[in-house]
Design a protein that fits this description.
The chain has a 5-stranded antiparallel beta sheet. The protein is built from 5 helices and 5 strands, in the order E-H-E-H-E-H-E-E-H-H. The protein is of the alpha+beta class and 142 residues long. The longest helix has 22 residues. Helix 1 packs across helix 5. It is 42% helix and 25% strand.
């Protein structure tokens, strides 16, 4: 497996890849998810953290913890322990001259729980995430 290949298949995540500046893509991701009712609960700048902690340099790599409060509330009511999978993580990273956006697929993730009450909600969340990812591609182009 080459450096740019991944072991994570598309069945586990929703993705896009864009040839635009990193900060432009980050802004587009935040805006697209906001349009779907998600806010940013956390923003982890892994590039900065690794530079500060161990002096390692790398391309931009940010993990956004996105949350849609009404959907999160419904998920917790359906499965109290679901919080271990929240918030929805969205990875934005530069690699090979492109910026890659990858969001966890809630359907694949929530199957681990084994609670059938969560599946309709997971499908709704997946639809919103898929629309957000598509909007990012439309907003900043290929």
């Amino acid at each position: 497996m080459s450096k740019n290949e991944t072991a994570l298949g598309d069945s586990n995540s929703l993705t896009t890849s864009i040839a635009r500046p990193f900060e432009q893509v980050i802004a587009a991701v935040k805006g697209a998810f906001k349009d779907e009712g998600f806010g940013v609960l956390s923003e982890i700048d892994v590039q900065k953290a690794l530079q500060e902690k161990i002096g390692e340099t790398m391309e931009p790599y940010t993990i956004l913890g996105m949350c849609n409060p009404p959907l999160a509330s419904r998920a917790i009511k359906a499965e109290h322990e679901i919080g271990v999978f929240l918030p929805c993580n969205v990875l934005v990273h530069a690699c090979g001259g492109r910026v890659h956006v990858r969001a966890q697929d809630p359907v694949a993730l929530f199957r681990i729980i084994g609670n059938p009450d969560v599946e309709p909600l997971a499908l709704e969340v997946r639809e919103r995430i898929a629309r957000a990812i598509a909007a990012v591609s439309s907003a900043v182009g290929p």
